[in-house]
Task: inverse folding
């Protein structure tokens, strides 16, 4: 059996561990599932795309809204549908 060593951001690892725990599996099992699918399908087994939620414009709007809420002001926004 092979062993892999890799460096991962602490916050990413913590979130992944929580997700694995919620799914009832270890991080090793989750990574093995990923690698088996990668090897069998010869592709990344999920869509790799930019989520518009994390765009700089949306994050700035969210920061402004949070600041207004913290100051006790009413926040008005327009909902935007994303495909």
Result:
């Amino acid at each position: 059996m092979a062993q892999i060593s890799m460096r991962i951001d602490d916050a990413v690892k913590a979130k992944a561990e929580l997700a694995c725990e919620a799914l009832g599996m270890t991080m090793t099992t989750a990574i093995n599932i990923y690698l088996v699918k990668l090897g069998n399908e010869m592709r990344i087994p999920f869509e790799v795309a930019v989520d518009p939620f994390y765009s700089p414009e949306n994050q700035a709007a969210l920061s402004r809204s949070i600041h207004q809420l913290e100051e006790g002001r009413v926040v008005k926004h327009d909902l935007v549908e994303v495909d």
User: Anything to note?
Assistant: The CA atoms of residues 57 and 63 lie 10 Å apart.
